[in-house]
Amino acid sequence: MESLAKRRHDQGSSREEDGFGVQPRRVANLAMVPNLQQSSTSLCRSKRPQCLFSSCEKQENLSSWIPDNIKKKECIYFVESSKLSDAGKVVCECGYPREKHLEEATWPHTFQGQEWDPKKHVREMPTDAFGDIVFMGLGQKAGKYVRLSQDTPSSLIYQLMTQQWGLDAPNLLISVTGGAKDFNMKPRLKSVFRRGLLKVAQTSGAWVITGGSHTGVMKQVGEAVRQLSGSFCEREVVTIGIATWGALHNRESLIHPMGGFPAEYIMDEGGQGHLTCLDSNHSHFILVDDGTHGRYGVEIPLRTNLEKFISQQTKERGGVAIKIPIVCVVLEGGPGTLNTIYNAITNGTPCVVVEGSGRVADVIAQVAGLPISEITISLIQQKLSMFFQGMFETFTETKIVEWTKKIQDIVRRRQLLTVFREGKDGQQDVDVAILQALLKASRSLNHFGHENWDHQLKLAVAWNRVDIAQSEIFTNERQWKPSELYPMMVAALITNKPEFVKLFLENGVQLKEFVSQATLFYLYQNLEPTCVFHYKLDKVLAGEPERLDPSVLLQHVAQVLRELLGDSTQPLYSRPHSSNRQRLLPVPSVKISVRRVSRQSLYKRSSGQATFTIDPVRDLLIWAIVQNRRELAEIIWAQSQDCIAAALACSKILKELSKEEEDTDSLEEMLALAEEYEQRAIGVFTECYRKDEERAQKLLVRVSEAWGRTTCLQLALEAKDMKFVSHGGVQAYLTEVWWGQLGVDNGLWRVVLCMLFFPLLYAGLVSFRNRRQQAEGGLARVRAFFSAPVVVFHMNILSYFAFLCLFAYVLMVDFQPQPSGCECLIYLWLFSLVCEELRQLFYDPDGSGLRKAVLVYFSDFWNKLDVCAILLFIAGLTCRLVPSLLYTGRIILSLDFTMFCLRLMHIFTISKTLGPKIIIVKRMMKDVFFFLFLLAVWVVSFGVAKQAILIHNERRVEWIFRGAVYHSYLTIFGQLPTYIDGVNFRPDQCSPNGTDPYKPKCPEIDQARQEPVFPEWLTVLLLCLYLLFANILLLNLLIAMFNYTFQQVQEHTDQIWKFQRHDLIEEYQGRPPAPPPFILLSHLHLFIKRVVLKIPAKRHKQFKNKLEKNEEAALLSWEIYLKENYLQEQQLQQKQRPEQKIQDVSDKVDTMVRLLETARLKQSGAVEQRLASLEEQVAQTATALHWIVKALRDSGFGSEEGVPTLAPQKASVGRDPELDSGSKAEDPGDTYHVNARHLLYPSCSVLRFPVPNEKVPWETEFLVYNPPFYTADRKDKDLVDPVGENPMGRTGLRGRGDLSYFGPNHTLQPVLTRWRRSLDGAICRKNVKKMLEVLVVKSGPSEHWMLPGGSREPGEMLPRKLKQVLRREFWSSFESLLTQGMEVYKGYMDDPRNTDNAWIETVAVSIHFPDQSDVELKRLNSHLHSCDEGMAIRWQVVDERISLCDNHKVILQKVAALFGAYY
Fold first, then answer.
1. Rounded to whole angstroms, how far apart are CA atoms 1243 and 1252?
2. CB burial of residue 124 (10 Å; 0-12, 13-18, 19+)
3. What pLDDT digit, counting tens, does each position of 636-688 carry?
4. DSSP 8-state class, residue 605
5. Are strands 320-323 and 314-317 parallel, antiparallel or unpaired?
6. For residues 1296 and 1305, what is the distance between their CA atoms, to the nearest angstrom?
7. Which of 835, 748, 1439, 733 is nearest to 1058 (CA)?
8. Strands 417-420 vs 351-354: parallel, antiparallel or unpaired
9. Residues 6 or more apart from 382 whose CB is under 8 A from it?
């Protein structure tokens, strides 16, 4: 058969702490995955090679691709630095000594006399460090590394990782940041962090990105990976270290211009100095080069850009596409880490801060649950002094103000900040905290209603975390419609995530409604490419066009399934009409490629749905079984209707596929799964048989339309499920068939007596099952008796014995030259046997065709024996009728008699005593054939050697055979050769020259003395060795083989006998009642019916019964009910097993230990918080007492300014300090402008002076306040001195900024709304409230929509932006609409462009169209246009998650409240 093998030090700021920030994008529309040839990461073990190149070819490709595309940086101008190297050498400004420069860099050239500038004096050239990295002395698996320029595009790096390194695109990006120096963590927290990080990386298929060095947080990640590698893991955790090449110790060993395969790297922490070593537990390294040596932080911009690029890529699996989510995990850290968190939060990236890890992480964790108004400069100063004891003196007042501002902004966006506190409810593991943070962040994204929940579900499915889906998504907060789950159901099926399939079924998905023709077609498009069924289907589609119609593909699927199930089944999918098939041109390449199906068509109900399939659950079960997906198939089978037939069909399919499976592990899995389904069929049938024997037997022979019009019994026989067939219920049914209408309690002797003397039937000697039959008499009773298979069988036995006796008599006594009467009777008898064999040959009640009938006939060994015996008889008869060949004919007939006698073994297989023994004999015959091969080797070797030593040039063939083979064979049984030792040599008993045909040739003799001269010692030695091996070794081997076979077969003999018993019963069930030769009358009657009257053959109703629809539906409902009982019983038995009980006790103990530890941690945490609060109150009280004493001492009442304020009781004491995901972005009391204080001014690189909340009012003293001045260079406006102060307070920036005027800049915001309506014109509602739609615009690359308003030209009424979307002829009409509108807001706008000297004030006017037929609304819609290609216009549903600028959201909320609409 065709082979299936086709088939990653802290110097002011941490270099690990900086450079994080990724803006998540909205998920794109779902697209269909590629065709069937595309590989989906499946759990199915790969049997056929998935890569096209060998290891050497891959290395060659890397050696050519990387130097062509990846560059490094080199200094090309040596300028002596004032600093010396660690070794005291003179170095360049780049940090490298002279010998590390190119030769041209030291020559006088055009750069001479210039100051060293990295932008001019560092150039790119092909990289010389890439390949595989091996850490010497550590024994880790080889990783990948590359040295690249800091200017390398992120797209090129991503291509390197996914295409050249072969990494699968991640489902999640985890960026771990924090302290780059070694820090101490509590052992338990360290363990929890490691376990959780790796769990989320493994289960979600994430990439973990760190700084790659063997220090700080990178070391923690690396040790976690090492801990995992020592245990079993399903997939390798991808850990990518992005480090600075110039700060790497021992980097010279990585330089290999043609690639290091492998490069041997030595970790030398003792001699690294101010440099760093790579961490050996990372799997991939990206070494960023800027051409300098010893400078840290070079990799930060590249890492930031790479993470942002990856987070914008779409990962598509199972038809579901999501943009790769990213999360930042923070441990410990310094100032750089704070910048990283701030950038991440600003860009919308969720962050998980691990409390207890130290420094920045603990500062943020301590204040995360406080209102913004309570996060003050003094509080942050206190926290810094607590957690930064070693470097607190370095914090200036300005720096503390900056930290306060950044921490306020971080905490303000609570939906993006998650604090992991060990022992907090729901956060026992870091992995749960990470995934919950991502889901919480996704809820804050601009998705509407179902879209937001759908996005969260996509994430959960992509991560394969059903626990997160159950706890966070499938809650009472959201009620899912089954149709909304269909896309995720498809993804879970294709990516083999059975827990999600079960979850979807529990939440309303009905498989019968889910499976459509398009869905099934799409599933078969995405078959696991490594499964055998894919290979078989590929062969079937070899001659088909490249693009197929779904019905055509399913018809070919049905063809392969029929090969697996057997030809006794009909195709499961009907053949499409030829008129419906599209005329598509074939392509030369042979591959499975099918026409794409639109996303919507997958879940639409078509009118032809009913004609597509009989049982959708069956189709899904087959799809799972052919890919050997155990868990999926188990879930689907539990939903099936015809469950016994389904289990038996699965067993058959798996056994057939296992015959073509080359991978041993997969083969064993298939056979084990096949046996499991056989046991399920037995279990359900046992339940049915216990409940009702008669109905259970109906299930056996009921024609199942869903499974190709076959029966459960036929499926079990085709699958050779001996355990099922040997079941007591099946055997009881076969026994009833065997006895026909007779009672099964009749003794065999009674049957024989009535056979010999049928009048005894009227004496009541035998009983009938039917009482009416028992009471009847006459011919009906005789007919019922003689048509019973047991009677037909015994009559045929008697007839066959009579035939053999007569045959023996003729051969031994009455074989005359002319045939006698007895001999003629033999010929007639044999003719009747020939007729019966022909009837069996052409018997085709299922209409499978003559070819199939012939194949079925000759598949039986006994039929082959019958044909051989008949043909041999004809040959003997032919010779017998020729006088000269009379004796030859008699010999042939004598041999033929032996074959007819062997046929008796088949007859006695029905016997419970002899049947099993005959089976053992048949199995032992196979052992004999293997033994004869070994024996022949010794017989021939000894015989030839003996003959050559004793006899010289014997030319008579018959005597050569005698000496070389025959005599050697007889020696085994004790007949030693005559002349083996010369003792019994007698010259008169041999022929010296070999001329006497009746005497053997004499051995080598001395003619003078007439004595043998051959070496007797040699022949005797050969004889002894021969007897030793043949008699002792081989014969005992044969005995041992027989014993093994007997012991092996004896355990299953009863099953085998019961299985084979069916064939004999079925044979005599349909056999004519008359024995040979009287059977000729039956054959004549049959000939008239079939040939003359054209009456078709019918299978006996007892083996194939077509039920009425109502009866069949009731029977299947009863079967389903008992299947549920069986499954419940199996679950109960599973719980009662000792192993399961031990596991349950272990789980309960673990749970109790966890709860106790959690309670202890909670209690200790509460005590710590109370103590901290008490200490603060005591300190404040001491300050107050000090002031009172001082005031009394001065004999005055003191100054009111110095009165201390007692600290309020902490809101976090005694409660959960973490707000829920539904909290608002701003806290109550956070009344100052926020957007106007963003540190980065929009559309430029100007940074504002940090202004914390408490320093916003101008009345508050802020001595260190020194904001920069910025005014955009606008040619249309005159630059004047700053006038006025922002009425809302400080913004951190002086000047006009991007605004047009100093002071207030007036804008107009028209809010155009209408009611959202359904297709029938009804107003849509949500939570009882009506829903609005608002007109919004978007321009350029902006991610947010805006109201169509803005600034106005002097003397104009309409804002500029509105004019851009309205035609000129409608401007005057719109002005009248504005005058009729309602003012909903007038005042200050919190805008990011505001400064201390310039700000925006706006007027918001609501224009509402209550009627959909409003003329002005129609005119407005008709005059909407975009004069700019980059501008978009649309009516958007009003929702709190609308993708709108924050200040515009405030206006829109007021409008919704005005109309009582939903928001």
1. 23
2. middle
3. 999 998 999 999 999 999 999 999 998 888 999 999 999 999 999 999 999 99
4. P
5. antiparallel
6. 10
7. 733
8. parallel
9. none
Task: Grade residue 918 by pLDDT with cuts at 50, 70 and 90.
Answer: confident
Q: Which amino acid would we find at residue 663?
A: D
Name the token pair of 1389.
Answer: 């706008």
Q: Let me know the angle formed at the C-alpha of 1099 by 1095 and 1101, rounded to the nearest 5 degrees.
A: 115
**pTM for this model (two decimals):** 0.73
Closest C-alpha among 129, 164, 196 to residue 57: 164
Which helix (DSSP H) or strand (DSSP E) does residue 1085 occupy? helix 1079-1087
Quickly count helices (H) and strands (E) in the chain.
Answer: 49, 30
- Give CA–CA dist 517/838, Å, rounded: 45
What are residue 1016's phi and psi, to 5 degrees?
-65, -35
| Residues composing the chain | 1463
Q: What are the beta bridge partners of residue 177?
A: 330
**Both tokens of residue 497?**
């995530």
Q: Which residues pair with 140 in a beta bridge?
A: none
CA 581 centroid distance within chain: 34
- Which residues, at least 6 apart from 1325, have a Cβ–Cβ distance to it below 8 Å? 1331, 1462
531 neighbors 662 (Cβ within 8 angstroms): no
Among 240, 218, 239, 216, smallest CA distance to 229 is for 239
Cβ neighbours of residue 1240 closer than 8 Å, sequence gap 6 or more:
346, 1246, 1247, 1248
For 1232, the token pair is 């100052």
User: Which string of b and e fits 526-559 if b means at least 16 CB within 10 Å?
Assistant: bbbbbbbbbbbbbebbeebbbbbbbbbbbbbbbb
Q: Which amino acid is at 254?
A: L
Beta pairing partners, 1333: 1314, 1437
**CB-based contact 1012:977 (threshold 8 Å):** no
pLDDT in tens, 1414-1460: 888 888 888 787 666 667 888 888 887 777 887 888 889 899 999 89
Residues 6+ apart with CB under 8 A from 347: 21, 22, 23, 308
Biggest alpha carbon–alpha carbon distance for the chain: 161
Which of 259, 210, 226 has its CA nearest to residue 141? 226
Task: Find the radius of gyration of the CA atoms of the chain.
Answer: 46
CA gap 688, 1126 in Å, rounded? 10
The span from the CA of 90 to the CA of 1284, in Å, is 57
CB 1143 within 8 A of CB 1151: no
Among 307, 331, 303, residue whose Cα is nearest residue 23: 307
Task: Find where tokens 């101490």 sit.
Answer: 184
